[in-house]
Amino acid sequence: MFDCQVNNTRVISMKAVSFVLSPSKFYRYTLSSLIEKEVGINCTSIPEMSLKLIHASGNPEIERVLLLLDYAAYEDEVWDYIDYLQQNYNISCPLYIILLNVERDLEVEMDAMSKGLVGVLFQDDSIELLLKSVYKVLQGELWYSRKALGQYFKRFNCNVTAQSDSKEDINLFDLTKREKEILLLMVQGNTNDMIASTLNISASTVKTHIYNAFRKINVTNRIQATKWTIDNLVSI
User: Fold this and answer.
1) Residue 158: which residues within 8 A CB-CB, separation 6 or more?
2) Of 5, 63, 209, 227, whose CB count within 10 A is highest?
3) Residues 138 and 174 grouped into a single domain
4) Which CATH number belongs to the domain containing residue 82 in this structure?
């Protein structure tokens, strides 16, 4: 649990652990130390691609696991590794992945979103921005450029009609009216605070509805929820 300051903004407590994966000892140790000091969560540096340390962190009290992956160092094999991670990760709490050290490339962001990653950080992003992204994604938000998010949603919207005849075998009536409203607002790129303001409810209530909706539709992050919502709710 922690209660700390990020960019002079008070943040709430959470139970989470994080990892920095990079072959550069200086980079991973520096970043790990900054995350522990400024964000307040335990952060372990990993010198090579392995699930051992990540799985060793699993315990009933941990709610989220965050992996910051050095894209520039592993560019040729990063997508295979992410596939391996997602297929073999076996801790009950969700795994959130952010790519670090990415050149400004829209297609990399699109590929990251299609894999269900929660964010991308560019090589010229500041340390302050990196720390802010860690906090935001642990709060359930995405960290992508507006251009990438807009393009991603546009691509899915173009396919809604074609996909509408092959919806997943999920009883949509299991979702409450409020949960559907929140999922549809999420598709439009609204943050939890924006959704709360629109629906005139508290941000904590929004988080509760999101948690319940994610559980019902069997997803773990906003990207997966957005795809599911576009496939199953947008054209209804």
Assistant:
1) none
2) 209
3) no
4) 3.40.50.2300
Within 13 Å, how many C-alpha atoms sit on residue 104's CB side? 5
DSSP, res 94: P
One-letter amino acid for residue 119 of the chain:
G
3-class DSSP assignment, residue 99: strand
- Whether 10 has a pLDDT exceeding 60, the answer reads no
Give the domain CATH number at 225.
1.10.10.10
> Quick count: other Cβ atoms within 10 Å of Cβ 138?
21
Q: So what's the pLDDT on residue 70?
A: 94
pLDDT at 169: 46
Domain that holds residue 196: 154-232
Ranking 15-19, 50-54, 68-72, 143-147 by mean pLDDT, the lowest is 50-54
Query: Whose CA is closest to 78, among 28, 117, 39?
Result: 117
| pLDDT tens digits, 165-202 | 434 444 555 889 899 889 988 877 677 888 898 899 99
Exposure pattern of 43-81 as b/e (b: 16+ CB <10 Å)? bbbbeebeeeebeebeeeebebbbbbbbbebbeeebeee
Can you give the pTM of this predicted structure?
0.68
**What CA–CA distance (Å, rounded) separates 150 from 15?**
31
d(CA 37, CA 31): 10
Query: CA 64 to CA 135: how far, in whole Å?
Result: 12
Q: What's the total number of domains in the chain?
A: 2
